[in-house]
Amino acid sequence: MYPEIKFGTDGWRALIARDFTFSNVRACAQGVAEYISAHRLKKKGVLVGYDTRFASEDFAAETAEVLAANGIKVYLCPQAVPTPVVSFGVKSLAAAAGIVITASHNGHQWNGFKIKNEEGASAPTETIEEVEGYIHNLKKAPPIISLDEGIKKGIIEHFDPKPLYIKAVYKLVDVPALRKSELKIAVDSMYGAGIGYFRELLLGKAVQLDEIKGERNPFFPGIHPEPIAKNLKDLCKLVPQSRSDIGLATDGDADRIGIVDEKGNFLTQLQVYSLLVYYFLEVRGERGPVVTTITCSSMIPMLGEKYQVPVFETPVGFKYVAPVMQKEDAIIGGEESGGYAFKGHVPERDGILAGLYFLDFLVRTGKKPSELLADLYRKVGPHYYDRLDVEFEAEMRQEIVNRIEESQLKTLAGEKVKTWDRLDGFRFILESGDWVLVRFSGTEPLIRIYAEASSLTRARKLLGEMRGVLGL
Prior knowledge:
The chain is an alpha/beta fold and 472 residues long. It has three domains: 12-161, 3-Layer(aba) Sandwich (Alpha-D-Glucose-1,6-Bisphosphate, Chain A, domain 3); 173-380, 3-Layer(aba) Sandwich (Alpha-D-Glucose-1,6-Bisphosphate, Chain A, domain 3); 384-470, TATA-Binding Protein, CATH 3.30.310. It has helices at residues 22-38, 56-69, 83-93, 125-136, 147-153, 162-172, 175-179, 197-202, 233-241, 269-283, 299-306, 318-328, 351-365, 369-380, 397-407, 456-470; strands spanning 12-15, 46-50, 74-76, 97-101, 110-116, 156-158, 184-188, 208-212, 246-250, 257-260, 266-267, 290-293, 311-314, 332-334, 340-342, 384-391, 411-412, 415-421, 426-430, 435-440, 446-453. A six-stranded mixed β-sheet has the order 1-5-4-2-3-6, sandwiched between helices. Helix 1 packs parallel to helix 2 and helix 10 (269-283) crosses helix 13. The longest helix has 17 residues, at 22-38. The radius of gyration is 22 Å and the shape is globular.
C-alpha cells in the first residue's frame, strides 16, 4: 500500500500534501509500532517530538495516536523541540525509540519522519530496513485512538525533555563562565526549533545577545533553514553591525550549527569541524579517536597525526558516524553538513551544544573566531572548501554514474589524480592532497559536488570541471 515511502540518509522526507500526508505518516508510525512489538519493547515506550514546520504538531499527534492504538506507551512533546533534545530525552527515559517530525534543513514545502534508537542516535540501516518492510507490507489502514482518549487512559502523556537536556549541558560546558564572559553574540534561529535556546542558556547581565528569526514561521521566508552562507546573509550583516564577537545559526531542527566570525565572514562547515577538533585536542587537552565522514576536511587526519589520535572515516550520514563513535569511544564525530556529536552526550548531532563549545573556545583562548582559524592554519596549512548542489531528474541517475565511470579521469584542474575511491559516491584525490567528491543526496533529488583545495579559486575550479564531466 505504501511503496512510495523510502527512508534516506536520516529519515523519510517528502513534500507536504503530495506525499507527506496523514495517511503516509500513520503508515510510518505503524511501521515503527510493528518493529517495537516484534522486539518486545512496548513497555519502554516511544518519545515523539516535532519542529516548527506547517502542521508538525498535528503529524506528531497522529503518530502518537497510532502508536498508542498498538498498545505502546507514548511520551509526546508539548511544543516544538530540537531533534538533539528529543535524542537526549529518549536516552533519559530509557525509551525504545524516538520519532521526530521534521525535514531538518529542507525548504518549507517539505516535512519528514526521523527515527532515533534507544541511544538517541539515528536508527541504523538494519532498523530502517525492517521498519520499511513493515510499512510496505501493510494491508490495511493502521489502527488509531484519539489523543484525548490516549491521555485519559494514560498510554499517552506529555513529556518535555528540555529541562533534563539543559541540566545535562551544564555538566558538559561551563555555562556559568559563558554567562559571565561579556561576549556579544548574534543568533539566527532560522525560524526553527532552536528558537530561544541560546538566549535561555546564556543571556544575563554580562552577555549581550541579539536573536533574529526567533519566531515560528513555517514558510521560512527568503531562506532554506540550512545554516550555510547563502542562507545567513542577514546574520553576516548583523554581526559586524552589532559589533558581536560571533554569530551562531541553527537549522530547522537545531541539530546543525553555522558560525559567522566577528567580521561577518561565514566559516565553512569543514573549517568549523576542524576548529572543534583542534579545540578538544589543544585547548581542552582531551585525547581519543575522532570520527569524520568522507566529505569532511583533510585537516582532520592532519590534526589526528599531530596529536597522535586515530581518525576514523565513514560514509555520509550520522547513522554511520554514531556506531563508530560508540565502538571506538570517540571524543567527537562530525560531518560536512554542520552536524557534530560529542563524547558524554548522545551519539547524535547537536547544534546547540556545538555552539556552546565554540563559545567556550573563544572564552578559554580570549581570541576571535578569525584568530582561531589563523591558529589552525598555522598548524595544518590553509584549506578552502566549497560545495555545488545540482538538481537532476531521477531517471538520469544511472546515466550520470555511467558518465563518471566512463570518463576514467586522470587529471583535474591541470593536476594528476593520485587515487580515487567509491566509499560514498566518487572521490578523486589529487597529488597535492586537494580533492573532489561527487555523491547523490540521500534525502533530496540532488547531486552534490564537494571540493577542498589550497585556495578557494582552485576549489571552485575543481567544482566546475567536475560538473562538466557530469554534463549537468
